[in-house]
Amino acid sequence: MFNLDFVKERRIELGISQQKMAECLGFKNASTYLKYESGTYSFKADMIPLLAKILNCRIENFFKN
How crowded is residue 13: how many other Cβ atoms within 10 Å of its Cβ? Predict the structure, then answer.
């Protein structure tokens, strides 16, 4: 299962705004990104490597044991 809590906590830990995340992932605004972070939308498989790069973590960190 994808760990949305990790994504949010890591983003905050690094001081990255939702707007900055949206821009890095190619979204027009923060509200679109928020729908992914809150689980309304699911991160697509091709987005995960970029997400790991932005959050400076390993892909494995996104998945709960």
Answer: 10
d(Cα 9, Cα 20) in Å, to the nearest integer? 15
> 11: which 2 tokens?
């983003």
Query: Domain 4-57: which topology?
Result: 434 Repressor (Amino-terminal Domain) (1.10.260)
DSSP string of 50-65, one letter each residue: HHHHHTTS-GGGGB--
Which residues contact residue 40 at a Cβ distance below 8 angstroms, ignoring those fewer than 6 apart? Answer: none
Q: Please give the structure tokens belonging to residue 22.
A: 């949206």
Q: Rounded to an integer, what distance in angstroms lies between the CA atom of residue 64 and that of residue 2? A: 6
Tokens 């997400």 sit on residue: 51
Q: What is the pLDDT of residues 19-47, one digit of tens each?
A: 999 999 999 999 999 999 999 999 999 99
